[in-house]
Amino acid sequence: MRSFQLAPSLLSCDFTRLGEELAAIDAAGATYAHIDVMDGAFVPNISFGLPILAAARRASSLFLDVHLMIQAPERYLEDFVHAGADGITVHVEATPHVHRAVQVIKSLGKRVGVTLNPGTPLEAIRPVLADVDLVLIMSVNPGFGGQRFIESSLERVRTVRAWLDALGSSAELEVDGGVSPHNARALVEAGATVLVAGSSVFGPDGPEAGVRRLRESVL
Ligand SMILES: O=C(CO)[C@H](O)[C@H](O)COP(=O)(O)O
Ligand SMILES: [Co+2]
């Protein structure tokens, strides 16, 4: 089985206890914290922005994996880097300048990711595939946590895995949305290397149990 990392999404955490939630996922063995930034324009929801990212940075040394669901993300890339992002992922649908955004994130010395909505043809990422360190396959329509996994995403993961292997790329292949113990193993078998999970990690029995259940479901 391919090795994989878990990236708990803070979207589902208790923000009154942000530092403790970060410490709990760190202790449970997660290596990334996934940070969902939503602007109410690119997606129909507003989550949080730079101050929460900066607070997470002060509270934790986990890799902060920032998923920008905002229009024209190129306007804010430097700001997100200054606030503490270790990696930034941009949507191809959010800007006509995705190539430029990728180059800017690289020039800022951060891990660069590209992503796309479930309804966007995979071909849209091909022009930047060789330039990125991470491809994120959205397995829900972005905007909200706790949605149901879209089954056809599995085939999209297989396709991008084949493209990356054909390129000889070591880019991470991340999946985000509705990831749970029911589908985690199939996603890793399909070629995913990073699984984002919000509602299935920050559940009623706490993030340690959530991380453990996901890990055990893949082993
Ligand atoms: O990008 C996202 C939504 O747009 C979130 O990362 C994602 O939905 C995680 O939450 P869950 O695991 O509950 O689906
Ligand atoms: Co996300």
Question: What does it look like?
Answer:
The chain contains 7 helices and 8 strands. It is α/β, with parallel strands linked by helices. It has a single domain, classed as Aldolase class I (TIM Barrel, Alpha-Beta Barrel). Strands 1-8-7-6-5-4-3-2 form an 8-stranded parallel β-sheet. α6 crosses α7. The mean pLDDT is 98. The protein binds ribulose-5-phosphate and cobalt (II) ion (CO). Cobalt (II) ion binds next to β2.
Order of helices and strands: EHEHEHEHEEHEHEH
Share of β-strand residues: 15-25%
Bound small-molecule species: ribulose-5-phosphate, cobalt (II) ion
CATH class: Alpha Beta
Low-confidence stretches: none
Strand segment tally: 8
Q: Whole-number radius of gyration? A: 16 Å
Form type: globular
Strand arrangement, major sheet:
1-8-7-6-5-4-3-2
Treating each run of at least 4 consecutive H or I residues as one helix, how many helices? 7
Counted up, domains total 1
CATH architectural type: Alpha-Beta Barrel
Average pLDDT rating: 98
CATH-defined fold name: TIM Barrel
The major beta sheet can be summarized as: 8 strands, parallel
Structural class: alpha/beta
Give the CA-CA distance, first to last residue.
Answer: 8 Å
Assign the CATH superfamily. Answer: Aldolase class I
